[in-house]
TrEMBL record, chain A:
Domain ABC transmembrane type-1: 97-309
Superkingdom of this protein's organism: Bacteria
Spans annotated as Disordered: 1-28
InterPro entries with a match to the protein in the record: ABC_transporter_permease, MetI-like, MetI-like_sf
PANTHER family xref list: ABC TRANSPORTER PERMEASE PROTEIN, INNER MEMBRANE ABC TRANSPORTER PERMEASE PROTEIN YCJO
Protein name: Multiple sugar transport system permease protein
Record-annotated membrane-spanning stretches: 38-68, 97-122, 129-150, 181-206, 227-249, 293-312
Organism placement in taxonomy: Bacteria, Bacillati, Actinomycetota, Actinomycetes, Micrococcales
Organism: Paeniglutamicibacter kerguelensis
Coiled-coil spans in chain: none
Membrane topology annotation: Multi-pass membrane protein
Automatic annotation (TrEMBL), chain B:
Transport listed as a keyword: yes
Listed name of the protein: Multiple sugar transport system substrate-binding protein
Keywords associated with the record: Signal, Sugar transport, Transport
InterPro entries hit by this protein: Bact_solute-bd_prot1 (IPR050490), SBP (IPR006059)
Signal sequence range: 1-29
Amino acid sequence: MSTTLAEQPARVNTRRSSAQATPPGMRKEAGWRKRDRAWGYVFIGPQVIGMVLFVLIPFGASLVLAFAEWDGLTDLTWVGFKNFTDQLADPLLHKSIINTLLLALITVPIGLGLAVVIAVALEKLKTRTLYLILFFAPVVTSTVAVAMIWQQMFRADGIFSATIGKIFGITPPDWLGDPKLALIAVSIVSIWSSLGLNVIIFLAGLQNISPSVIEAARIDGAAWWSLFTKIRLPLLSPIVFFSTIVAFISSMQTFDTVFILTQNAGPDNATRTIVYHIYDLGFGRFQFGPSSAAAVILLVMTLVITAIQFGAQKKFVHYEDDAA
Amino acid sequence: MWNSKDLKRRSVLSLGVAAVSALVLTACGGGSGTTSGPAAGGNSSIVFSTWGTPEELTRFTEFNTEFMKRHPEIKVKLQPVASYGEYHSKLLAQLTSKTAPDVFYVGDDKLGQFVSSKRLMPLDDLMASDASKTKKDDFFPGTFGAAQQEGITYAAPNDVNSDAFWYDKKVLEEAGITEDPATLAAEGKWTTDKFLEMNDQIAAKGLIGSMFWNYWATHYGWISAQGGAAYDASGKFVGNSDPKTLAAVETLGKYFQDKKFVDADSLPSGAGADSKFVTHKAGFFAQGRYTIGTLKGAKVQEGYDVVDWPTPDGKPAPTGVAASYLAINTDTKNKDAAFTYWTEFLSAEGQEFRLTGGGNAVPSIKGADEVVLEDNYPTHAQTFLDMRDVGFANYAAEGAVPALSTDISDLFLELYQGKNNAQGTLDKVAALIASKTGK
């Protein structure tokens, strides 16, 4: 409906009067919102400063150093892409990449697979809290303590090796002294120490599946196995996807277990991971340029692998909404 | 639950400011930091930093207590770092941020680059002064190594460790060896052939012949003992063109590849070289005087002795002497107090105090040798002193380049693992040195 020119001032006046008519309580609320926002900034301030100081600035510095030669003491010299070409030709980096990928390929599927199985087993168990505490204990235990305990267990005369020797009737394996076994030893510790967290996440995921979907499948005659493989597992897939990405990135950054469990990255660099390589170059050899270049290479690798995972998720990740 | 109305503006702001301040202070604090500077009453305060085992750190604390009794005007604070591996990265951060201790240890593998960076105080004038208890000539000249550049002294060895061959008489006996290496050495019959023959016999029994840490003193010590030369007088690497060096490295590589020699670094922690040695799994172990502590700790000291490195003709030759060095921060605010501490720490009396009672090293200065011989253990303890007198520190040309010695050790590891031959290894070493030093 069109309006006449004469009506327009009246409309403006109406708006003005409606603003004036806002109840006092509403104005007070708007004021509190502003203050809440201010408190919010105060509270996130330390986090932001921490992020800038300990993440963004080091990240920028690392990027800059990747193109320079610097030993931490003398003047910095620009070398262009030399650190990258040197690193990409360095057999130690190659070994580190292979070890890191192997570690991820062992720990991620086995670790997550075990976690799913345990979560399913615990789901209906009344005493599951006790088991959850047991599984979660390694997560909250210091990595140093975990690694040192496993170091003793992995000794040829340690309880883990001796038990395996007895069960299979073989000479107890020298886990940390044999280049073929050292990485497997690190994998065992990594899986063990992250298992609890994954179990908790999967358990929460399983309990979050809508009972109506399960009930509908049951009414349709689905047995336990087909219910699990065709309904529950697909509906758990977003959690699996999230856990896979987190576990993969975490695996790519393995350092402390290697550092404590296998000093000097094990026999013949058998457990040398990329992060250990970065640490060794930087803080062991004071070669901060090559170390930073290796860090950038790790970043690119992680981004590529994560992008691949995101690409692949379209094929195996199902959301409850999709079904609807 | 928190309600925004309950929050008092002032208390929240205080909380935020406190959190930010804590964060910023943490970032700028640099860990324990240093506190050198004038102490109360016009006295001086200095910080001394080192790595060490709990026993060593206790001894340093005792030294400081005694020092402060002698010098009540100087307050010394010990800033220890337990691990050698962590020590230098912390020191580097402290030097870069100008928060480094006044007096500090530096390892022989890192010394050269600290010297090159001009962060260490030149000491020649101070050492020659009346206040000095450590004249330059009091030290054994071969042990300065990378501490001297272009005729200027930037640090001095606080003590040294000649890598002797410790041997387990029980293992030798088990391998059917009836001759005693130290006795052979005293008779001038401790030859390379004899040593290798013993290793063959030990390995034939399924035991380790010899264990070595993979570092400069091992490969250069072996080369030197066999009459070869790694570097010439000008500091150029010539090992790859010297026939004696090539032959020596070939033998070294062969024995490692045959598993008769073992790289101690590659043994697993928890079942490492020390453990193998005290449980009679290895015949020889190239190590310093600190092995006394290992053997006594395991209560197996009886039946072990030391001998120097074998040579083709049985006459002693120079071999590697590991050292750590004491330096003064060029930025110290208390130069006089720092030097007083430095010179007393290194003096014959200071070294005697630190190394007495089963100490872990050999004095680097004349006049304190008695501490090595005091307990008559091991039987041929004099070997440590003899080896020090003729031995050599890491080559200055090599020590001055960050991680060069470590990178060279990596190349020797390839040889030990059979991934390269002697000529190939030495050529790669020569190329690496040329690329890093221009020589």
